[in-house]
Write a structure and sequence with these properties.
single chain, two-stranded parallel sheet, 3-stranded mixed sheet, alpha/beta, 7 helices, globular
Length: 166
């Protein structure tokens, strides 16, 4: 199963057409416990905060879970390592390699961005899972946009607020 927001992402649909047929396992922080149980879920990875009622569902069903949250690049790196360790096997080493690659990519982007005068920074509009849904200044997207010498025009919204302009 996949999170509802991920399922609606048009780019991910193009990359993985089967995404459209996958059932929704979480919507926001609400867990679809029936779907996870039907799929014999070995591990639930939940993004954001998990209310006690939702964690109780997972605990009662005997489904181990990891809660990850990332408002920026450093948080995402921590989440990658946490997920790698939760999966076990070769995954901890693979997650460490991915984090090292990611850190190298960040350094290269920031190095190039330092050479761009602020007057030449591009204005970028970043949408989430749809053209009119944006994220706030404390988001992964806004963090990346700032790191590559651009201005996120949608990041002037209050922290942790997502707005649908419909």
């Amino acid at each position: 199963g996949v999170p509802g927001g991920v399922k609606s992402d048009l780019i991910l649909q193009q990359m993985w057409p089967e995404l459209l047929t996958e059932p929704v396992s979480t919507s926001g922080s609400i867990v679809n416990i029936e779907e996870l149980m039907a799929r014999n879920c070995d591990l639930a990875i939940v993004r954001g905060q998990l209310e006690a009622t939702e964690s109780n569902k997972l605990t009662r069903a005997g489904i181990p879970y990891v809660v990850v949250s990332y408002e920026g690049v450093e948080d995402q790196l921590d989440a990658i390592e946490l997920i790698g360790h939760a999966l076990g096997g070769d995954c901890p080493e693979a997650s460490e390699r991915l984090v090292a690659y990611y850190r190298d990519l960040i350094a290269r982007c920031e190095d190039r961005a330092q050479r761009v005068p602020q007057a030449e920074w591009m204005q970028v509009y970043h949408a989430i899972n749809g053209a009119l849904l944006t994220d706030a200044s404390n988001s992964l997207g806004a963090d990346w946009i700032g790191r590559v010498a651009c201005v996120d025009v949608s990041a002037s919204m209050p922290a942790n607020e997502k707005t649908d302009f419909d």
